[in-house]
Design a protein that fits this description.
The complex is a heterotrimer of chains A (359), B (304) and C (513). Chain A is mostly helical and 359 residues long. Chain A has a domain of 211 residues. Chain A is built from 14 helices and no strands. Chain A is globular. Chain A starts with 7 loop residues before the first helix and ends with a helix. Chain B has a domain of 211 residues. Helices cover 75% and strands 0% of the residues of chain B. In chain B, helix 2 crosses helix 9 and helix 7 crosses helix 9. The radius of gyration of chain B is 20 Å and the shape is globular. Chain C has three domains: 236 residues, Rossmann fold (3-Layer(aba) Sandwich); 168 residues, P-loop containing nucleotide triphosphate hydrolases (Rossmann fold, 3-Layer(aba) Sandwich); 67 residues, no CATH class. The chains are: A mainly alpha (359), B mainly alpha (304), C alpha/beta (513). Chains in contact: A-B, A-C, B-C.
């Protein structure tokens, strides 16, 4: 009874989708590149070419992990809010503001920044769900609009208060005390990696081990059942949006003071799509999120290395990501396999029933 | 405040409303048949780029327009296939297509022309502006309503056509039946899938018109991210219009109004980012107000 | 009466997964008659009709129309053969007008446009002709249920139906509307239409129909002339069981009133008064059975008692608290467990594991001071529950929807019976489960009774009520009309009289309830 059955079907499906996406990408690269062999080599193995490239994968997976964790919590309730992007960006703005405007001792400074980022993120996460609750407006539409709104708003704040006149688009430098500090010499990898690991563990505990997480899952699976079982459905949903937003916000703050020494986000920063993809790949299990994020980060860095070669643009990654999402999200992709598995399970149950009946 | 007195300001309202009106209609026709088409943002990006490229290479405006419409519509039909035949979640499928389109369009531009993010090396054609006889001679009204791009006129004409199609034609009835009660439609022999493919085709076509307007009318080149969420804004304007394309016209003009303010303030040397916020903020506020109104109205209806 | 128009021979329907819904059904209908199909819920009436209308595939057996064998691939086929169906859930488009719904898919057009005038004219004509009054220009969402039903009937006739199937048409109608409908159906009969009338309201059948066929457990019991049988006889045919349920009950002492339902009122969104000053009480240690034809307020009363619905007025006293003022969670904390009517909609999350489903209502119990769940205790609890309640599953990780209906129900019963609640609300505890699971659940109910738990049990199965209850109260139109203290001595016939509103106990006796 105790043995857990592996969900091989899910794994095979994801692998097949990834493989199919890579095949399509390979064909496109082969058509576009002047020297396809070199381009493909760089794409697939580029991240291993230098130490810097490899750790590039590590540091660029940090925001991906935070975004994916946020999406994991926010979408579990069945609410489709994209507010994580707004939360992430505004937390970055908040982090930069505190990093420039406050003088605090190192250690305290970073903690204050990350907590402030999380708070701002959480509050932004609440906007779509509260608007939905009180006005009935669709959370998806509102949160998508919010992305554009908060990018312009946040960057305007930075320009208004912290702009470096000499540069014209970036802010002035952060206080030295605000930086997270480089963890590995000769790379950009910062101590945010550790914070990311802590975040993964905390979210894993929240979602898989806590009462709140279980209630959230039940609510997402069948809201009527959750209500009937005595769960405070409204509270759980609103709570999930705040916590999810806070995780995204913490991610934005970590990214800001880990990677940058001044505010440089002059175009909007979007991680929700990656977050959704990572959750699809990780079948929404928090502990698998770093793995899936590593994969996405890897192909990103690979594509960047390839694009330095000149003739293939790194944006091919978006196409690959799009194809993977599309296939994994398709119920009918490798459907017969699933049907067979389900039939098998039903049969097994039937057999046990028969056996018990004999006894 | 004096900007509201300027005729230019009101002219710009219509100019800015055009792409959103196309997209609103695209959202509406899909929505009326029961599909949430989230892929308009992507369809607009694809159409705007392929239009520019095709017109640049062929040197022919109509070829450009046609190719733009074709690519954007094809893009939407792929999405329709995944939603209906592959049973993908329509929101996630739409997101995936948009992601592929936003990156794919930049990738394609670079691969074909070597341009990064902006189509500088392509000499694209643009749809012309036209003066409307009689109307142009009327003071004030003529200044605001005449001299627009042909696609602007097309958008407003199509909004009226769509209104009539949905309200008066057999096809319109089918669409509404399928959208509101697919079982009822099925029970009288209407083929739900077929109708939804038809509406997605029209949706893709309309969104593509919005796309080619952006790159071959509104401005005359393609830049990455130029759609700037107009495909998503259309979801809000469509919700505000509640399935009525004449109201959709009004909702799009509200957006155009916000945009026009932004453009004017920017010309008055206000921070560009502060003013870019305005149309998005306006749309959120209007959308929330409309939602409140509809909720109130529904409650009243229920209590009857 | 005319000659035979429709006949089915040995019609059988087996759903994927092996559920036998219809088995060798035989009956025939004559031209120009109103033929009733009666049977309890789950007797297979709807499945039979869906096969006749081409919505469900026929597994085995034959359908003859005017002597010729026919096969329907879909409902369009059935419509083409002159069969129309008015389903319980109306197949109408709310934002279209009455006329537009009537002609949907086959509109008259002039050029590009739908010919509104002609469509309205058609509607008015057909409405006039059959004396089924509808407002052609009104939007469907603004018309009454009664008019919607007339529209549905007109829709079938507009498409050329000669045989009209009505699936429990009166379930949603007010009494006056029902009367009107019957008058119109009798008119249609005069015009030579054949009507198949599905119902479990026997007095309606008695009033309206010429012949009736009784279905039970998916089989046809027989066809009778309505004039030859009494309501009581039909009722016996419908609910009478081959196997009688009899269990040895422990002698337990029934205590004082533990829960009191006081003057509950509730009006549903269609404006029907579902609960009408309902009062009754539950004594500690008893199984209180609630009988009644479906739709007489039992469901609403249980939903309000467990907090899933809010009443308009009245109170429910339990342990010094008014349950109508509490949330579901608080009601459960006070000591009320609930086996809901619909196990897939409310009773479980089908996509989740057996573990998640069994533990869902006891999460609080397994939460430590850090708000974390004690997985080990949950596993122990779930395994114990699965063991004790003989839930047959390949493991706690199995999705609950992979289990058979009987096992899902046992899992739900396991969850609710282990809540340590003083009162357990049972709403149709064995509906649609196999005999084995049913007997098992019955035994568990008696076990709980031996442990001095109090239970309220709503059931459509009279044998079940008689076998388990210490007392039975009968609901009719949102009120208690009968109290049966001596359950053993009562008969189906007596219960039937109460259920149909033909018999009512004195006020004094009802006050005691």
């Amino acid at each position: 009874m105790k043995k857990k059955k592996k969900d091989w079907y899910g794994v095979i499906r994801v692998l097949a989708a990834v493989a199919l996406a890579f095949i399509i990408a390979t064909i496109i690269i082969a058509i576009v590149a002047e020297d396809p062999a070199t381009a493909l080599h760089k794409f697939f193995l580029g991240p291993f070419s230098t130490k810097r490239n490899f750790f590039n994968v590590i540091e660029s997976m940090i925001p991906l992990v935070f975004a994916a964790l946020a999406i994991n919590i926010m979408h579990k309730s069945g609410l489709f809010s994209m507010a994580a992007d707004s939360a992430f960006y505004m937390a970055g703005v908040t982090a930069a503001s505190i990093a420039i405007g406050c003088k605090l001792p190192a250690g305290v400074h970073q903690v204050v920044i990350i907590l402030a980022g999380a708070l701002v993120g959480g509050l932004i996460g609440l906007i779509p769900v509260l608007i939905k609750k009180f006005c009935g407006a669709n959370e998806l539409v509102v949160s998508l609009m919010m992305g554009y709104l908060f990018f312009n708003f946040g960057y305007w704040l930075i320009r208004e208060f912290f702009i470096d006149i000499a540069n014209g688009s970036y802010s002035v430098k952060f206080e030295k005390t605000a930086s997270l500090g480089k963890m590995i010499q000769g790379t950009n990898t910062h101590y945010g990696v550790l914070i990311m690991i802590v975040a993964v563990i905390l979210v894993w505990i929240l979602m898989d081990k806590s009462k709140f997480g279980r209630e959230l899952k039940i609510t997402g699976a069948n809201r009527r059942f959750a209500k009937y079982a005595g769960i405070n459905v409204g509270g759980v949903i609103v709570g999930s949006q705040f916590v999810g937003g806070a995780v995204a916000g913490a991610g934005g703050a970590v990214e800001m003071i880990g990677m940058y020494s001044k505010f440089e986000w002059i175009i909007s920063v979007s991680y929700v799509w990656d977050g959704i993809l990572i959750n699809l790949l990780a079948s929404t299990k928090p502990l698998f999120i770093p793995l899936a994020a590593f994969f996405i980060s890897y192909i990103r860095v690979g594509a960047t290395v390839m694009s330095r070669g000149g003739d293939v643009d790194a944006e091919i990654v978006s196409v690959i990501q799009g194809i993977i999402i599309l296939l994994v999200a398709s119920e009918r992709f490798l459907y017969t396999m699933k049907k067979r598995q389900e039939e098998k399970e039903a049969l097994e149950n039937q057999l046990i029933e028969d056996k018990k009946a004999e006894e | 405040m004096e900007m509201f007195l300027k005729l230019d300001f009101w002219f710009t309202v219509f100019r800015c409303a055009t792409p959103v009106l196309f997209a609103t209609m695209a959202a509406m026709i899909a929505d009326r048949s029961g599909i949430l088409n989230l892929g308009m943002e992507g369809a607009m990006a694809i159409a705007s780029l392929s239009g520019v490229l095709a017109s640049g290479f062929s040197g022919n405006l109509l070829v450009g327009g046609f190719v733009g419409l074709f690519c954007g519509t094809l893009f939407t039909m792929i999405l329709a296939y995944f939603i209906m035949n592959m049973k993908a979640n329509q929101v996630i499928a739409g997101i995936a297509m948009n992601l592929a389109a936003s990156g794919g369009s930049i990738f394609a531009l670079y691969s074909i022309t070597g341009d990064k993010n902006t189509s500088n090396s392509i000499q694209s054609k643009a749809f012309p502006s036209v003066e409307i006889p009689v109307l142009k001679d009327i003071p004030v009204l003529g200044d605001i309503l005449s001299g627009h791009n042909v696609l602007t006129y097309l958008a407003f004409i199509l909004a009226i056509v769509l209104f009539i199609v949905l309200k008066k034609t057999k096809f319109g009835f089918k669409v509404r039946a399928v959208g509101e009660s697919p079982e009822a439609a099925e029970s009288v022999g209407i083929k739900v899938h077929r109708v939804r493919y038809q509406t997605m085709f029209l949706s893709g076509l309309l969104a593509s018109f919005g796309g080619i307007y952006m790159s071959m009318g509104y401005i005359n080149r393609w830049t990455a991210g130029m759609i700037a969420g107009r495909g998503y804004i259309a979801l809000a304007t469509n919700a505000m219009a509640a399935g009525n394309s004449l109201l959709g016209m009004f909702a799009s003009l509200l957006y155009g109004f916000g945009s026009s303010i932004a453009i004017y303030l920017q010309n008055m040397n206000m921070d560009p980012y502060m003013v870019t916020m305005i149309p998005y903020l306006a749309i959120i506020v209007f959308y929330v107000l409309f939602s409140l109104y509809y909720r109130h109205k529904n409650k009243q209806h229920e209590s009857l | 009466m005319g000659k035979e128009i429709l006949r089915v021979e040995n019609l059988t329907k087996i759903y994927p997964g092996g559920t036998v819904a219809n088995y060798k059904i035989n009956f025939s209908a004559d031209e120009g008659e109103i033929h009733a199909l009666v049977g309890e819920n789950g007797a297979g009436k709807s499945t039979l009709m869906k096969m006749l209308f081409g919505i469900e595939e026929v597994t085995d057996g034959k359908i003859f129309l005017r002597g010729e064998e026919i096969h329907f691939a879909n409902s369009t086929d059935a419509i083409a053969h002159g069969i129309g169906m008015v389903q319980q859930h109306m197949m109408l488009v709310p934002s279209l007008t009455v006329a537009e719904n009537l002609v949907l898919g086959i509109e008259h057009t002039t050029g590009l446009f739908v010919d509104k005038k002609q469509n309205v004219k058609d509607t008015e004509e057909i409405s006039e002709k059959y004396n089924l009054k509808v407002d052609a220009d009104k939007l469907v969402r603004d018309i009454s249920i009664g008019m919607k039903q007339k529209l549905e009937i007109l829709k079938t006739m507009y498409r050329g139906a000669k045989i009209i199937i009505l699936d429990e048409p009166t379930a949603v109608l007010a009494p006056q509307e029902t009367e009107e409908l019957f008058e119109q159906l009798l008119n249609l009969k005069k015009d030579g239409y054949t009507i198949l009338f599905i119902s479990h309201k026997l007095n309606e059948v008695k009033y309206l129909c010429d012949r009736l066929t009784v279905l039970k457990d998916g089989k046809s019991i027989g066809t009778y002339n309505v004039s030859d049988v009494t309501v009581e006889e039909i009722s016996n045919l419908m609910v009478g069981r081959d196997i009688t349920l009899s269990y040895d009950k422990d002698e337990t002492e029934i205590g004082d009133k533990i829960l009191t339902v006081d003057h509950l009122n509730f009006v549903d969104k269609f404006g029907t008064k579902k609960l009408d000053d309902l009062s009754f009480s539950l004594r500690s240690g008893e199984v209180l059975g609630i009988a009644g034809i479906e739709g007489n307020g039992q469901k609403e009363a249980m939903e309000i008692l467990t907090g899933n619905m809010k009443c308009d007025s009245g109170s429910i006293q339990f342990k010094g608290k008014d349950l109508t003022k509490l949330t579901i969670g608080k009601i459960r904390d006070t000591g009320i467990a609930h086996v809901p009517e619909d196990r897939n909609l409310d009773g479980s999350a089908p996509q989740m594991s057996v573990r998640d489903n069994i533990s869902a209502a006891s999460l609080k119990k397994f939460t430590n001071k850090f708000k974390l769940l004690d997985q080990k205790k949950i596993d122990e609890y779930c395994e114990e529950s699965v063991e004790k309640f003989k839930v047959k599953t390949s493991g706690l990780n199995s999705m609950i929807k992979s289990l058979s209906g009987g096992n899902v129900q046992k899992a739900i019963v396991a969850r609710e019976f282990t809540q340590d609640a003083d009162v357990i609300v049972l709403n149709q505890p064995t509906r649609g489960v196999d005999v084995g699971a049913m007997e098992f659940i019955h035994k568990k109910i008696l076990e709980m009774r031996s442990q001095k738990k109090s239970m309220v049990m709503v059931s459509a199965d009279l044998a079940e009520l008689q076998a388990l209850s210490d007392r039975i109260i009968v609901f009719y139109k949102g009120k208690v009309v009968g109290v049966i203290d001596d359950v053993k001595q009562t008969t189906d016939k007596e219960l039937g009289l109460y259920m149909l509103g033909l018999k009512q106990d004195s006020k004094e006796k009802l006050m005691e309830a």
